[in-house]
Design goal:
100 residues; mainly alpha; 2 domains; 4 helices
Amino acid sequence: MDKGQARRTYTREFRESAVRLVNVEGTPVAKAAADLGMPAHTLTAWLHQARRGKGSFRPEGGVDLEKKVRELEAENRRLKLERDILKKATAFFAREGAQP
């Protein structure tokens, strides 16, 4: 970097749209970087980060998605079991109330 040149910072949205331009739209890295007015090596680094899920391309909050899925599946099983028990209890009490 030249002495008089300030380091440029990019927003998360800009980074994501630049990566999308290459990955989704198929624009070559050199052309996308030139169109966006940025160094090609910076865009290449962002592409590598995006593939690995690192840097600003990490999911918001850093939540362990697999853990969250396991928790939700366990809750779903528990709720289904409770529902089935309530169905059986309702049927039982409906029969009890119908008998003279």
